[in-house]
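Our consortium's second objective concerns turning raw sequence data into structural hypotheses that experimental partners can test. To show how far this objective has progressed, the report includes one record in full. It was chosen at random from the queue rather than selected for favorable results. The single chain below, 167 residues long, was entered without modification.
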Amino acid sequence: MADNRDSQLPRRSFCNRALVTSAGLLLVAGEAKSQGENPQKPNPPENPGQNLLMYPPMKIEGAERLLPGSFLYFNYPKSSDAAVLVRSAESQFLAFSRRCAHRGCSVDFDKARGCLVCPCHRGVYDTRTGYVMYGPPPRPLDQIILQVRSGGEVWAVGKRTGGEFNA
């Protein structure tokens, strides 16, 4: 009698595939809807520049041990893409690209001021939204999309571009 365990899909692989498939279906359905409403005139995006990009999920190591009000540097979606994970005082996890929208310098978390700071031209970003609070950056930071899974694990699953302007 054959062993069926070898042909079964592990739960983690199944969940990852279901997530990616669902996201793809939502993106395709939204595009089909916008093209079907008026084929002669394309619809402008609801939020210009707010593009959602899906990447393979990646566990952010050490995030579950992060205390409220602290931060953790990591790389996502590629090993060359610096990012920062911030745990707010309300214990919410937020993550952003560390690449400044002005000249591409690497922004740092300023724990004393509770913001993200670009040392090159003194640009300051809000850690709750990624929006520019002060300085020359023309747009918000790109946001890393997160999932909090069982056991407090935090996973990066995508990226939303910062758009053209602050809200």
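The partners drew two points from this record. The chain has two domains: 1-43, 48-160. The chain has a mean pLDDT of 81. Both points have been shared with the crystallography group to help prioritize constructs.
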